[in-house]
Amino acid sequence: MSIKLGDTAPDFQAETTLGDIKFHEFLGNSWGILFSHPADYTPVCTTELGYTSKLKSEFDQRGTKVIALSVDGVEDHQNWIRDINETQNTDVQFPIIADKDRQISELYDFIHPNASATATVRSLLIIDPEKKVRLIITYPASTGRNFNEILRVLDSLQLVDSHKVATPVNWENGEDVIIPPAISTEDARKIFPKGVTEIKPYLRYTPQPNT
């Protein structure tokens, strides 16, 4: 199965470090981030999970639940979390899914045979409150993810859902945004009271709307 943008994220039941969950019930009406790890006790993953833990307040502000997955059991996950907390100076509070039979990894296409026949790649999905997949990023096992970029995309998606805008290259929260071509400049001046800057008829900016 290959999951694409706009697809409904498949539901599943799983054992995690915080007990059994049903994925859609776990997400509720929140945004969600599901990200996979090749295995427990791996150095790159240890840094990733530690950094994600430190971003808890950032995800909370964005109404977003985080859940990780690794193809090992809960006992290994629990022992690994102790290592993560010790080495990364944090307190991991989000669940890590136990996927020893790799059923969820197969369901979400986290195993890429040409990379590894058994280990998952570093995939990450952002899922909106309607359970639609809005972002898919896949890294090789050797490269740690950039969670500052994940937060940036999350900010962009939430802004786009609230207002009729798009975000330009390297956009950061608070910067000017782009008015989509489907909106005429005349209509844009009514919709965006902070003003419209027209570079070309198809390239117009406006200050970021209040969120």
UniProtKB/TrEMBL annotation:
Any single Gene Ontology cellular-component annotation: cytosol
Name of the protein: Peroxidase
Active site feature: 45
Similarity remark: Belongs to the peroxiredoxin family. Prx6 subfamily.
GO biological process terms on file: cell redox homeostasis
Keywords, sorted A to Z: Antioxidant, Oxidoreductase, Peroxidase, Redox-active center
Classification via PANTHER family: MCG48959-RELATED (PTHR43503), PEROXIREDOXIN-6 (PTHR43503:SF4)
High-level lineage: Bacteria, Pseudomonadati, Bacteroidota, Flavobacteriia, Flavobacteriales
Domain Thioredoxin: 3-159
InterPro entries, alphabetized: AhpC/TSA, Peroxiredoxin_AhpC-typ, Peroxiredoxin_C, PRX_1cys, Thioredoxin-like_sf, Thioredoxin_domain
Protein's UniProt keywords contain Repeat: no
